[in-house]
Write a sequence for this structure.
């Protein structure tokens, strides 16, 4: 592994939201960006609600030019903090901080139903947002709706399938998760240390159409599959470790998707990604508004901007990491090579072809059992 590769003083942050980092800076230093601090100086500097909006977001929003148009057109200053912790921590910060500390957050939609139930986020008016411009499947994304009411809007998403070294494997080679169990790749598989996507994909491999809703027998089968996979896996690591190892040629296969592959491929590294025939699971980020904010008007204006095409066309190819975006007008604004890289070339058939074999990542009801299984897998 060559940490000094000038081609790879770039890193992909993990949209698992468990790990974090920044794609263009980490390999030279081997460290991720800092966690948001709730120090008194920050809280005391919250700007006037009439002229600002206070946003706690995962990486990408801070990059040059991302929010300039919003601030110039609205006169609203974005008081932005980048979060490098978990989704649970992000939501807890909104819930426990003084009203107005964080008007907007960007968690994974898997955590939205609990936030709705706990009264942490505000109901939104669907008519305020460009949902008609969205891919239909994302506009109707189940986790952000409850009893016909909207509480959050996905503005960034992608998938987990297989990321692979295309100089060593053909597309047909990796068209099934079977490749991960092939004796010839023993020790060449790397996994990101986050149980939901890895176990979700293996659950799809086991034939479960709803990979996180398993009865006792299906969950036992999933544990058996994990056990079978363990000898094949040479690395279970954080984002930095896995990306460095793959970039350096130590590993050829990972359960991952475009958020890893697109940036690597664009930087000249021989990695592609696809959704195997058994399907995959999604990742996403959704924007939502605090239920207690005194600043809802500005918060809604911010959501209108980040769900629109101008912002999403930049977010899709953010230096932090690439991602698919749900606004079809944003997809059209991308250069053709980027559209192809992000599976956005055929937007008219995107829902029925590309998304048809993907399942939303969610938090299973027996989450503690899933986490225990993952820990056992890692320690085997």
């Amino acid at each position: 592994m060559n940490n000094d590769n000038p081609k790879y003083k770039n890193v992909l942050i993990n949209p698992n939201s468990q790990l974090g980092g920044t794609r263009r800076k980490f390999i030279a230093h081997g460290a991720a960006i800092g966690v948001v601090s709730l120090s008194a100086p920050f809280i005391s500097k919250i700007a006037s609600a009439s002229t600002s909006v206070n946003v706690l977001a995962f990486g990408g929003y801070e990059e040059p030019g991302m929010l300039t148009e919003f601030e110039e057109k609205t006169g609203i200053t974005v008081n932005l903090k980048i979060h490098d912790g978990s989704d649970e921590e992000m939501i807890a910060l909104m819930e426990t901080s003084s009203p107005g500390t964080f008007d907007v957050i960007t968690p994974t939609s898997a955590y939205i139903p609990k936030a709705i139930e706990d009264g942490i986020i505000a109901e939104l008016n669907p008519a305020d947002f460009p949902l008609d411009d969205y891919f239909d499947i994302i506009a109707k994304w189940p986790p952000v709706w409850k009893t016909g009411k909207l509480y959050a809007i996905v503005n960034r998403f992608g998938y987990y399938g297989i990321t692979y070294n295309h100089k060593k494997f053909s597309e047909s080679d990796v068209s099934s998760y079977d490749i991960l169990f092939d004796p010839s790749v023993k020790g060449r598989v790397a996994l990101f240390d986050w149980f939901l996507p890895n176990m979700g994909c293996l659950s799809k491999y086991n034939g479960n159409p709803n990979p996180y809703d398993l009865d006792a027998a299906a969950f036992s089968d999933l544990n058996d599959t994990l056990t079978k996979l363990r000898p094949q896996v040479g690395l279970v690591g954080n984002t930095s470790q896995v990306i460095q190892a793959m970039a350096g040629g130590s590993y050829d296969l990972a359960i991952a998707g475009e958020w890893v592959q697109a940036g690597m491929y664009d930087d000249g590294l021989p990695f592609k990604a696809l959704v195997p025939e058994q399907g995959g699971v999604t990742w996403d980020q959704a924007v939502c508004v605090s239920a207690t904010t005194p600043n809802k008007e500005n918060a809604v204006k911010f959501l209108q901007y980040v769900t629109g095409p101008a912002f999403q066309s930049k977010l899709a190819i953010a230096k932090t990491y690439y991602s698919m975006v749900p606004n079809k007008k944003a997809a059209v604004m991308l250069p053709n090579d980027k559209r192809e890289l992000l599976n956005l070339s055929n937007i008219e058939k995107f829902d029925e072809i590309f998304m048809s074999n993907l399942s939303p990542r969610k938090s299973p009801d027996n989450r503690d059992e899933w986490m225990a299984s993952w820990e056992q897998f890692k320690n085997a």
Observations:
- Confidence is low (pLDDT under 50) at residues 1-48.
- The longest strand covers residues 153-165.
- The first helix runs from residue 26 to 29.
